[in-house]
Structure formats: C-alpha cells, structure tokens
C-alpha cells in the first residue's frame, strides 16, 4: 500500500495514495477520509483555499501537500 505524509495546516497525517499513483512530493491532493482521491494543480488548490476562507473553514497556511 502506497502512503504519504500530508500537511493539513501543520497537522501531519499519513494518507493512502492508492488512487493517485502519479502523486509526488510537493503536489496538492484532494483528501477524503484518509485517501488522496486526485491530484489538483496550483490554480485549483488556490480556488479551493479561497472558497474555504470565504466560508470560514480555512486556517492560514493550510496547504494540503505531499
């Protein structure tokens, strides 16, 4: 099982990377219940972060990166 350590705004968690074999260190990934389900580009990641800020769910520097 391929796994990676992901930084959720300073909280480091190990996640399953089985669904994203193309993911590499520094990539942004969308994570759901402990599984990375897709790699997203920087532009999309920034859009997600903007939306989370707007709804009050974003903690500064909360980059979800491998």
* Count of the separate structural domains: 1
Q: Give the strand content.
A: 35-45%
Order of helices and strands: EEEEHE
CATH architecture designation: Roll
What fold name stands as the CATH topology? SH3 type barrels
**Computed CA radius of gyration, to the nearest angstrom:** 11 Å
How many runs of DSSP E, i.e. beta strands? Answer: 5
> Biggest sheet: strands side by side, in what order?
2-1-5
Give the % helix: 10-25%
Main sheet, how many strands, which sense, barrel? 3 strands, antiparallel
Q: Which CATH first-tier class would you pick?
A: Mainly Beta
Number of helices, where a helix is a run of at least 4 consecutive DSSP H or I residues: 1
Which stretches are low in confidence, meaning pLDDT under 50 for 5 or more residues running?
Answer: none
Q: Terminal Cα separation, in Å?
A: 16 Å
Structural class comes to alpha+beta
Bulk shape: globular
What would the average pLDDT be, to the nearest integer?
Answer: 84
Secondary structure: elements and pairs:
Elements: E1 3-8, E2 11-16, E3 28-32, E4 35-40, H1 42-54, E5 64-65
Antiparallel strand pairs: 1-2, 1-5, 3-4
């Amino acid at each position: 099982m391929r796994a990676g350590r992901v930084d959720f705004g300073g909280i480091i968690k190990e996640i399953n990377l089985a669904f994203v074999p193309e993911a590499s260190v520094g990539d942004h990934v969308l994570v759901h219940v402990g599984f990375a389900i897709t790699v997203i580009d920087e532009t999309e990641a920034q859009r997600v972060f903007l939306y989370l800020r707007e709804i009050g769910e974003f903690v500064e520097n909360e980059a979800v990166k491998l």
